[in-house]
Amino acid sequence: MSAPYAKLPAWADYGLIPLINLIVAFFVAGLVVLLVGESPFEAVQLMIKGAFGSGRGIGYTLYYATNFIFTGLAVAVAFHAGLFNIGGEGQASVAGVGVAVVCLAFDSILPWWVTFPIAVVAAAIFGAAWALIPAWLQAYRGSHIVITTIMFNFIAASLMVYLLVNVFKAPGQQAPETRTFLEGANIPSLEPLLNMLGIAARRTPLNITFFLALLAAFGVWLLIWRSRLGYEIRTMGHSPKAARYAGIGEKRIIIVTMLISAGLAGLMALNPIMGAQDRMQLGFVGGAGFVGIAVALMGRSHPVGIILAAILFGMLYQGGAEIAFEMPNITREMIVVIMGLVIFFAGALEHMFRPAVQATLASLRPSSMGLKPKPAGDA
Amino acid sequence: MADAAIELVGINKSFGAVRANRDIHLKVEPGTIHGIIGENGAGKSTLMSILYGFYQADSGEIRIGGKPAAIKTPNEAIAHGIGMVHQHFMLVENFTVLENIILGAEGAALLNRGIARARGELHRLEQEYGLEVEPDAVIEELAVGLQQRVEILKALYRGAEILILDEPTGVLTPAEADHLFLILRRLKDEGKTVILITHKLREIMAVTDNVSVMRQGQMVATRKTSETTVEELAELMVGRRVLLHVEKGEAKPGEVKLSVRNLTVKDSRGVTMVKDVSFDVRGGEIVGIAGVAGNGQSELIETIAGIRKAVSGTVMLDGRPVDVTGAADPADLRRRGLAHVPEDRHHMGLILPFEEYENSILGYHNDPEYGNGVFLDLKAVEADARDKIAKYDIRPTDPHLKTANFSGGNQQKIVLAREMEQDPGVLIVGQPTRGVDVGAIEFIHKRLIAMRDAGKAVLLVSVELDEIRSLSDRILVMFDGRIVGERGPDATEGALGLLMAGVEQKEAAE
Ligand SMILES: Nc1ncnc2c1ncn2[C@@H]1O[C@H](COP(=O)(O)OP(=O)(O)OP(=O)(O)O)[C@@H](O)[C@H]1O
Ligand SMILES: [Mg+2]
């Protein structure tokens, strides 16, 4: 007897519970909408229409989802090793510097399909580098990774302001952003693809980084469940004692895992910088690093779950913008509140409904006292 | 006759295809000690978990004191006066003893009041039953034997009238077990009812009033203890005659394979646990280390296996030094032919949420036969796991089952199979048969002897004096971190017991 409570069947664990969490989140969000004097039903309609009702909506939804897939994967990888990487926000910002430098340096001399891979590598390296000190401190000094990565988010935020204002800002320009990239850093939009699929899309930022995100999800799956390193990461995550017994170097795993995690977070920078704005602007990460935490929690740290959760949050971002636009009483800030609620119920309160679901399922089984057992397979 | 303290009527429980309990009927008379025995995976823990509200029976009824009781959660079981000491402890490792005891029964919103009351109550219980533990010690720092006392105290603190103990003596020395039985008898004299699950038939004979036997999910027999024998019980359990004694020939010790000199080890609190220990183990012999749990054996073998750092001293493996005071690496030692079956299979030897086949390579997961430079070859790992499952009769035979869902004894076999099948030159085994049924003990002992006869060096640590005496070619007794004596396999239990208790008498040696 080791598992104290009967575990839930997979369909309940991966389907039912997230669904219940979502419904409750929407219910509470609906109350908020009601409070400000709008109809929650209309709001939901607006949101879904805004997110999926048009080619442009779909494009935006998937564009946001791309960001969240990267940051969600980042959190998940660290999580498998028992580490909580809160620093996605900072890692992605710093990765943006790498992307920008590559683009500014090569956009006039190389074609996009050469610039892009270089930028991918730069994004991963710059993102990973930003986690190196927190990782080292955790591994060798035991400083808690949650604290250090949060602090590095702040440092990154200040650093970005400094760099954009003092280093990257083109002379004579007002906004804290780099100059617009040239041809050589323009990666293909997925508009033609959407149009080919019969979805009329115009002016959407969705670009090939989306496929890079899917590829990264597959890579994470391979890493965690198929590779030797993944085996070591999971061992560490479940039982540091067993890891020591097995000769798995704790320090090494902490550092390697954090670098991979931060590298993934770094890739997120490609999407807005190269895919959408063709320049680096201040605040281009836009909270994706934090949304990644909710995405990873909701997606159960599994790449497939993360993709689905990322699309959900993409929908919230895009549909939410639509609501704010259409409903006078609902401001942009209101939408942030609603998203916060979803994160709260779907992510942070992940375990709230679990006991109730367990108890209900247990009592639904043919266990009512005194019944004859169902004839089962073997005798 | 009074109503049965507990009556189970037609209990059924399946886990997927595994029928863990089938149509179980059981009556436990109040004020008795009732033993339950059965092979690994027979369904004993499952049955008790149903009684304690961890699992729901698929069908059947529980009656407490004659009245039907719906027990859906452990809290309801506690409310019915049922307390449980688990086979695998359920303590919060980084809490103190006291904190663990009041956990879930804090009694007040402010902890300090509950704690103060608990301290008094704990003191009373300790006095009454002789269950001494330091209330402010942190659980993870306690030896397993002491952790168990905490479990018992926890149940008593909650006012248990019916106490279920699932393999409580697996971790105890005979002396400690005797002490436990004293406690159980005292409980019985007070009219409490005790259900005792154990694999040790001797204990059944010594302490129980009645005994029930389970086999493959069914209750196959119930006997009055006074009217049965160890042989009959063993046969009822396994369904065949079991060899209860080890048969082995003369040892032919060869080269020294493992050599330990002046080893001193401190634990994480800085307490010196191993003091200046020196010994050799030769190929072709089994050296047993006897001792009461917590006298440094765990630290000793963990240091030799490269998990812990020594303060000073040297260890040589096959004549080459192991950097025990510095960078000894368990992975490296494995490659050098040192296998280690850890005492604590749950936190060290296995990762319970992993599937069985994933655990079958823990520590060997970088070996070339399990994949290439980057990826694991899961097909190969699985085939290998199936092999071991067949060879060691691990049940159920599903390599994809979560390890936590194997019964205790079968989990132990998973670890043993992994370590022994590597064909190591030196094997360190901690508590190899803890929680393992008589049939499997026979099997494991045979394999250990076979390893010895194949010229391997075996270092055996066990709190089972019987096991030490029947397997070892030489016995070292450890007390308070030192090796206080070496004896031959013919040493009497009494003589070893004295040494283990730290009675330092040179004359006792002669
Ligand atoms: N949660 C679970 N999911 C699936 N199978 C389980 C689960 N718990 C137990 N089993 C299976 O049910 C059977 C009975 O297990 P149980 O733990 O009750 O055995 P046991 O008699 O206590 O054995 P041991 O003496 O080894 O402790 C085993 O085959 C075990 O693998
Ligand atoms: Mg059991």
Describe the structure using short key phrases:
A: 379 residues, ABC transporter involved in vitamin B12 uptake, BtuC, 16 helices, globular, B: 510 residues, alpha/beta, Rossmann fold, 20 strands, 33% helix, binds adenosine-5'-triphosphate, binds magnesium ion
Concise structural overview:
The complex is a heterodimer of chains A (379) and B (510). With 379 residues, chain A is mostly helical.
How many strand segments of chain B?
Answer: 20
Strand order of the largest sheet of chain B: 6-7-8-3-9-10
Which spans of chain B have pLDDT < 50 for at least 5 consecutive residues? none
The name CATH uses for the topology of chain A is ABC transporter involved in vitamin B12 uptake, BtuC
Number of structurally distinct domains of chain B:
2
Proportion in helices of chain B: 25-40%
CATH topology tier name of the largest domain in chain B: Rossmann fold
The CATH homologous superfamily of the largest domain in chain B is called P-loop containing nucleotide triphosphate hydrolases
Q: Could you say which structural class the secondary elements and strand pairing of chain A correspond to?
A: mainly alpha
CATH class of the largest domain in chain B: Alpha Beta
How far apart the termini of chain A lie comes to 24 Å
What amount of the residues of chain B lies in strands?
15-25%
Largest binding interface between chains: A-B, 40 and 60 residues
Helical stretch tally of chain A: 16
